[in-house]
Sequence to fold (106 residues):
Amino acid sequence: MINRQRRRAENIIRCHKNVRMLHLIIAENNKIKKIESVIASTKYPQLVSYHKNKLIVAEGFTKKHAVKIQFDFLREQMQKAKIAFEDYYTQLDALLENISINVVNE
Fold:
């Protein structure tokens, strides 16, 4: 009789732990979906940061600032050897084209 009660109590405790873990997983999944939606809605996803449980979208940047940030990010990736030379030159060409469009528009 005691063994059956002990097993039942262990099952109840295990069930509550599983429910708590499920709630934590759902909460983290909701955070990820929120971050993905904010990133998808911004023009420059590099300007979105997550700090102290808050999403921060940098506003007020000019196109020059955004291009500089993109170039710094590209150079940093190249220094860390995370991208291949072909990708580096492809992205650099796109960035130079973006700069030339920016200069023409001003």
User: Anything to note?
Assistant: Strands lie at 48-51, 54-57. The chain has two domains: 1-42, 60-106. Residues 60-106 form one domain. The longest strand covers residues 48-51.
